[in-house]
Design a protein that fits this description.
The protein is an alpha/beta fold and 278 residues long. The chain has ten helices and eight strands.
């Protein structure tokens, strides 16, 4: 029986003296797809339909960056440092070239990885994310805290507010997504610590205030995806990135927010597999 997100074992690898937690599944000996996670995201926050869908044709690796979930160390407070850690993890896994799927904060990390080590990356998927200095990114901290408090007061997961639109279809998709996240019951990851959460917020805030990168330097094929109504990282950032990247495709999902790839997971997996095909 093939391994799925639900039962993939959690392993560790030594990255310069620090233990990083990861899970690996999928088929083939081709270029692996490295998933780079969102703010507060740990191994169990990836949508099983996306992990399993891409793993049907590719080797998929999800991991906790330094100080997050089950990985040791102190979480960096800059996107650049997170990118350096991700590169070190990829090298420690023995990979010479990878594809990247970066969601939200992970998409910011992915942009730095491809700038710092372009030969390491073959193709790049940027989901629900934005460029350095992008519009509204410096507001992520206040928005996240506000919706986290709202979630606590209404006994709901804040992702229901942060990742999805308030429409009936958006909230139905939110409930379905949150149920999928519960499918794995054994050997679940540790939740992110408050200290790590604060460091990630600081990194995103600084990213939003940075001078813009020259995205024309990124010559790789890039798939840019988002919902058409992203409150966390405004969807205009996706349009801006797709315009500024030399070899980019853009997909915006209707009536969808930050978690558009989760709401439209079937369409996204199909498009991602077409994009990542050798």
């Amino acid at each position: 029986m093939s391994i799925t997100h639900k039962d993939a074992p959690t392993k560790t690898v030594d990255v310069g003296g620090t233990s990083f937690a990861y899970r690996q599944l999928g088929t083939g000996n081709g270029v692996p797809v490295i998933f780079l996670n969102h703010l507060t995201g740990v191994l169990d926050n990836w949508d099983p339909r996306i992990v399993d869908g891409i793993a049907a044709r590719h080797r998929v690796v999800t991991f906790d960056n330094r100080g997050v979930g089950a990985s040791q160390g102190r979480t960096p407070n800059s996107v650049a440092a997170m990118a350096r850690d991700a590169i070190a993890f990829i090298r420690a896994m023995g990979f010479e070239q990878v594809d990247l799927l970066g969601f939200s904060l992970g998409g910011m990390v992915a942009q730095v990885i491809v700038e710092e080590d372009p030969k390491l990356v073959r193709r790049l998927i940027l989901a629900g994310t934005g460029p350095a200095g992008g519009r509204g990114i410096d507001k992520v901290t206040s928005l996240t805290i506000r919706d986290t408090i709202k979630g606590a007061l209404t006994f709901k997961d804040p992702k229901q507010y942060l990742f999805f639109t308030r429409t009936a279809s958006g909230q139905a998709a939110a409930r379905q997504f949150l149920e999928r996240l519960k499918e794995r019951t054994d050997n679940r990851d540790k939740a992110i610590s408050l200290t790590a959460f604060r460091s990630q917020l600081k990194a995103i805030h600084a990213w939003g205030l940075q001078d813009p990168y020259d995205l024309s330097d990124i010559q790789h094929p890039v798939l840019v995806v988002n919902g058409d109504n992203d409150r966390m990282v405004p969807s205009s950032n996706s349009v801006d990135m797709a315009r500024r990247l030399p070899d980019a495709q853009l997909a915006l999902y209707r009536d969808a927010g930050h978690g558009g790839i989760f709401q439209y997971h079937e369409e996204f997996v199909k498009k991602a597999l077409e994009f990542l095909a050798p």
